[in-house]
């Protein structure tokens, strides 16, 4: 491998670090038990984990998650959850491009780091990473 090949590979890795992967589709629900039953028993999805505050279904590379409704996220609202390897880097790159974050990278009660922004159409998106 020559120096230019190494430099190109480093550039590719840098770009890959910035490209978010859709990890979650989060549906806000008013009744967790009813919603779990619907997606498990009616739709036929495999339940990965269930609790009163968060439930997950196996759907391939992207997880369907259920979360109790919140003041800003009523039942039926959907948020997209992206994953990036380097959240701070992604955050700075996106703010440099004019993306407005309602929450900068912040440590959450569950231990992970999340940032939140709205897309060009007002859809709420969360981004997790280290």
Short description:
With 130 residues, the protein is α+β, with helices and mostly antiparallel strands.
Features:
8 strands, 130 residues, 2,3-Dihydroxybiphenyl 1,2-Dioxygenase, domain 1, eight-stranded mixed beta sheet, alpha+beta, 3 helices
Structural summary, described in words:
The chain is built from three helices and eight strands, in the order αβαββββαβββ. The chain has an eight-stranded mixed sheet with strand order 2-3-4-1-5-8-7-6, covered by helices on one side. The protein has one domain (17-129): 2,3-Dihydroxybiphenyl 1,2-Dioxygenase, domain 1 (Roll), CATH 3.10.180. It is α+β, with helices and mostly antiparallel strands.
- In CATH, the architecture is Roll
Number of helices: 3
Mean pLDDT: 89
- Which blocks of ≥5 consecutive residues have pLDDT under 50? 2-8
> Which H/E pattern describes the elements?
HEHEEEEHEEE
In the sheet with the most strands, the strands line up as 2-3-4-1-5-8-7-6
Which SSEs are present, and which pair or pack?
Blueprint: H1 3-18, E1 21-29, H2 32-42, E2 46-50, E3 55-58, E4 63-68, E5 78-83, H3 87-96, E6 101-107, E7 113-118, E8 124-129
Parallel strand pairs: 1-4, 5-8
Antiparallel strand pairs: 1-5, 2-3, 3-4, 6-7, 7-8
């Amino acid at each position: 491998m020559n120096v230019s090949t190494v430099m190109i590979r480093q550039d590719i890795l840098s770009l890959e670090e910035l490209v978010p992967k859709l990890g979650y589709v989060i549906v806000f629900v008013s009744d967790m038990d009813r919603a779990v039953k619907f997606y498990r028993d009616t739709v036929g999805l495999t339940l990965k984990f269930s609790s009163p505050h968060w439930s997950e279904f196996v759907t391939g590379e992207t997880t369907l998650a259920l979360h109790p409704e919140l003041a800003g996220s009523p039942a039926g609202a959907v948020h997209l959850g992206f994953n990036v390897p380097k959240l701070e880097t992604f955050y700075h790159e996106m703010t440099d491009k004019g993306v407005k974050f309602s929450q900068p990278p912040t440590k959450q009660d569950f231990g992970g780091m999340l940032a939140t922004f709205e897309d060009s159409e007002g859809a709420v998106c969360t981004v997790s990473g280290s």
